[in-house]
Amino acid sequence: MIFESQLRGVFLEKGKRTRVYTKSLVPRVKVYDESLVFQSGVEYREWNPRKSKLSAAILKGLSQMGLKEGYAVLYLGAASGTTVSHMADIVGRNGIIFAVEFSLRPVRDLVFVAEQRKNIAPIFADASNINELAARISMVDLVYQDLAQKNQAEIFLNNCDLFLKDEGFGILCVKARSIDVAQKPSIIFRDVRNKLEKTMSIVDMRNLDPFELDHCMFVVKKRVK
Amino acid sequence: MVASSFNHILGKLSLSSNGQIGITQKMYGIDELKSNESSFSNMDGADKKRILSFLKENRFRSDFYDNNIALTKKQMSAYPSDDIMIIQCLASIEEMTKMKNMILNRLREWYGYMSPEFIHAIGNQEKMIELIESKDIEVLKNESVKKDSMGIKFLKEDNQSVMHLCVLYHEIDAAQGRQKDALIKRISNVMPNTVLIATPQLAAGLLQAAGSLRNLMIMPASTIQTLGAEKALFRHLKNKKNKSPKYGLLFNHPLVQQSPSASRGKIARILAGKISVCVKVDYFKGKPIAANLYSEIVRKVQHDL
Lengths: 225, 305
Prior knowledge:
By secondary structure, chain A is of the alpha/beta class. Chain A contains 7 helices and 12 strands. The termini of chain B are far apart. The chains are: A alpha/beta, B mainly alpha. At the A-B interface, helix 3, strand 8 and helix 4 of A face strand 1, helix 2, helix 3 and helix 13 of B.
């Protein structure tokens, strides 16, 4: 039995292994190789936690996501559009996801996903170039970032500073190995937390083990000045 | 509030002195959006936020979608692709080697049922395929009939099947030869200086390891030196007790191969340094400097030995 979780737009099915789903925005069309499941005339897409960090975080008990139907989202590090497609399912036809990716090959796949889901605007640009991004997007309700860069915290805070509405949520995936190859992940996460706390309120922090090793996800809220 | 206008994906955005925001529909290319004259970055922080919030409204979303997709597609097709083609070519060549080896192994297994003694005796793969092709069906029949041979009798069709594989092997071999020539031609064109110091094959390998010419250009010489030795490199970084690698792909360079073991590390380091200079010159399509650099390398190498 698939039921809606406490996170809007996110559906769960308990069993030997808990599964996560989103309601398919474009029925009968697969984005990657996800399973499509029918229940009471509604089609759901299975959200694979091994492929998508957000799904992994949800299975690790993520309490808040800051994502709602109709929202505008800035997604930094969209890659081929796996996680983006599920977010697109959640924000629905009236929402929009600005999917930013800097690497040529995945953007091609991202454009194909966007042609199916008309609420994804693919943007081939560098996430650290705020001014270039500003010419292509609007203010957003949520900033989601999943970049493998050494200065990922700085990029995240700069983008949130300009593009995130007041009291908007930000989600930052931290890949410890991109910041420092040898340092203990817990120390790296602590440093990132300190950087975030200067301008953001920490809402939640999830370690993504065993789905991703040495990864964690921070959920923050932008403080009104 | 200062009146200003700037280029935006939705068109020309204007901000009047009394705060009115207007949009004149226009399709800008990527260079026009990045242009400095009418720039978003020059605006006041508060104005920036006002405009961004204004654009958040539902009525603009359809245009955000249409215009961004159109621009992204244009960016894709305009992307400089020299290094992409070289990397694809090299990947193809490497795959063809694997294909050839697969066929040779299959031949060994299959033909071995008819002439196990022959297969057991012959080690060299090229010689094996040559001999298989040269023996006709009569000779084969005679061979498998030898006194205590373990060979099974092959029908004409079985023999034909084996010959098909031999034909396929030669086709792949010929195609691989053509790809190798094409690769050398292309990379000598795109990275003329690097190819002179690093040899075409190694230069292509370095490019593949880096992922793109731009990535290779940004790398310090020490990274170029260890490209291909990631296992050893990260083992060393995690625990300094492990030795750092002296070379990765660079190990296959003729100068490194020809030198005594004790000097190989030094030579790899010298080469990596000069290669990194060449890559930068090649990226920006600069003057031919490889000849000068090569004589410097030769001087340094002779000085050390």
